[in-house]
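Re: your question about Ribosomal RNA small subunit methyltransferase J

S., sorry for the slow reply, the queue was backed up all week. Below is exactly what I fed in.
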Amino acid sequence: MTAISVIAECAELVDGAKQLARRFALPFGPTKQPGLQLILTARGLVLRDRQQTKLGDVWVDWASGAVAHRRNFGGGRGQAVAKAVGLKKGQTPTVLDATAGLGRDGMVLASLGCSVTLVERHPAVAALLYDGYQRACLDADIGPWVAERVQCHHGQSRQMIETLPQHDVIYLDPMFPHRAKSAQVKKEMRLFQQLVGADEDADELLAVARQHAAKRVVVKRPDYADFMAGQQPHHQIVTKKNRFDVYMATS
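Result:
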């Protein structure tokens, strides 16, 4: 994994930046090496590529922007991710998102009533996720239910699947290489691929997840991607650019 340091935007934020660096075992302080940097700003922790400043900052904001729009206008329980995890009248599954990233799908599920556990293994991404989670818990609008329904963990996906309490659904959205670089590839994905690369152990996770999920495993894939581990899912929910492959648990 690429080592990435944490710095503060101003003197008032130095202590907070140091705390985040310690929590996620990241170096603190500026580096002479060009490239990615975690910066604690007044609005929150951001990931910035100092060589590609036009990409802008990547950060976790669950209270506003695209996540809030999706939460309010995305179609509720009728949207694809909700159908994939089996969320419907009388059934509100617990979900372990074992490859959480920025936590967006998990947040949508939590807003619909699911108890969601977010797991992220890359320390820099986990730091972004945790910072966004903390701010969301303090938000007057979404804070009460975020604090009640969402948990964040930093750890290896397989280990966390095996040691955390059993969930109804294990959700996997492993990093998958994009076929080409283009403006259509979201800046988050471009920076994430630069930071973490592809999840080479993704196929192994499917078997582990199916052994530990109480009901099902949901795998989010680009529309052009092969089935994880070459295994045909029991059924699929398909959207324009992605699909959700659903596997029944073997536990």
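The mean pLDDT is 89. The two ends are 32 Å apart (CA to CA).

Happy to talk it through on Thursday.
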